[in-house]
């Protein structure tokens, strides 16, 4: 069954998140950082959609905007059929329990003055759910689900390793029985040896709790490990999105091709020639006209400098935003 034949959990339509740039004596708005610029995609129930891109590509801002931790500048976020893009805080509350985030730095995201039990229990206390004894039971159950023992409940975050702290962060994200979890670089701060343990845990929990993930990372190997489909972002735009096998075996966008060409492959026969991108990532406060990648693209041609490429369907569930695949109007 194709992923796109499943029921949609989330639809993102023409989402934009711009941050004002202030300047001058009066700190007036003199420009805008286009962190997320007209991004559209769907997430299907039970899948893991990985989002990759360099730092500055807008992937973390995308995640935070979808969860409404940031207000979108424009566009729609439709969660289970409900448009949540402009809901006031109070009206967002019922959706918040269904949508959780696991952060990159488990140390910074866990309150060091609270015991692990209090950290995991807190969302239930805030929502006034269950009795004290039931909450304690749930905390112990969650700790066991993430591979920790019940003794962890009375300890504090600093008493744990990075990997264990991330397990605590995951347990907290699960407290309210969410449907959707965004992982914002959840294993980037961990030792390589611990990364796959946490990724495997996330996969096991996905099956057990029927979770849907949006997994944001800069590491292509990590994203390949966990994702069903992969989206590649460049300078606030979605360059390409499709099934993991298509993106990794047959990348269409010149940026995806360059990113993947830099990853070492064990199989000598399948080695790709390394594509060296020219120049630096342009500033999102002054993105290039036309295709945002044209200043670095080895395939850039005249049309790329003036016309923004739309994301177009290129075979089974694969979409690419590049003029090499679109007809001139
Ligand atoms: Fe390169 Fe042009 Fe395609 Fe952009 S639209 S990726 S510049 S070929």
UniProtKB/TrEMBL annotation:
Q: Does the keyword Disulfide bond apply?
A: no
Q: Which UniProt keywords apply?
A: ATP-binding, Nucleotide-binding, Transport
- Mind listing the GO molecular function terms for this protein? ATP binding
- Keyword Nucleotide-binding appears in the UniProt entry: yes
ABC transporter domain span: 10-260
Entry-linked PANTHER family: D,D-DIPEPTIDE TRANSPORT ATP-BINDING PROTEIN DDPF-RELATED, TRANSPORT ATP-BINDING PROTEIN
- Per the similarity annotation, which family is this? Belongs to the ABC transporter superfamily.
Q: Write the protein's name.
A: Dipeptide ABC transporter ATP-binding protein
Taxonomic placement: Bacteria, Bacillati, Bacillota, Bacilli, Bacillales
């Amino acid at each position: 069954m194709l992923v796109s034949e499943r029921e949609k959990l989330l639809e993102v339509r023409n989402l934009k998140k711009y941050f004002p740039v202030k300047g001058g004596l009066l700190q007036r708005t003199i420009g805008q950082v286009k962190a997320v610029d007209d991004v559209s995609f769907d997430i299907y129930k039970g899948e893991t959609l990985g989002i990759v891109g360099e730092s500055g590509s807008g992937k973390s801002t995308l995640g935070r905007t979808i969860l409404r931790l940031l207000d979108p500048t424009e566009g729609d976020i439709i969660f289970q059929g409900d448009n949540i893009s402009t809901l006031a805080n109070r009206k967002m509350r019922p959706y918040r329990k269904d949508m959780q985030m696991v952060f990159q730095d488990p140390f910074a995201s866990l309150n060091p003055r609270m015991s692990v039990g209090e950290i995991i229990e807190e969302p239930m206390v805030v929502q006034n759910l269950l009795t004290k004894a039931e909450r304690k039971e749930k905390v112990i159950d969650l700790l066991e689900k993430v591979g920790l023992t019940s003794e962890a409940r009375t300890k504090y975050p600093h008493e744990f390793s990075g990997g264990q702290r991330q397990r605590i962060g995951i347990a907290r994200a699960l407290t309210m029985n969410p449907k959707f979890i965004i992982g914002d670089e959840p294993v980037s701060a961990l030792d390589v040896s611990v990364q796959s343990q946490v990724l495997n845990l996330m996969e096991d929990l996905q099956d057990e709790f029927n979770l849907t993930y949006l997994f944001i990372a800069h590491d292509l190997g990590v994203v390949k490990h966990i994702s069903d489909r992969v989206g590649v972002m460049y300078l606030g735009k979605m360059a390409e999105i499709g099934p993991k096998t298509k993106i990794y075996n047959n990348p269409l966008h010149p940026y995806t091709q360059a990113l993947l060409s830099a990853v070492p492959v064990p199989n000598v026969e399948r080695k790709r020639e390394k594509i060296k991108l020219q120049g630096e990532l342009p500033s999102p406060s002054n993105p290039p006209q036309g295709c945002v990648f044209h200043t670095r693209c080895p395939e850039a041609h005249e049309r790329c400098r003036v016309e923004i490429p739309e994301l177009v369907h290129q075979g089974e569930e694969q979409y690419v935003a590049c003029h090499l695949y679109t007809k001139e109007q």
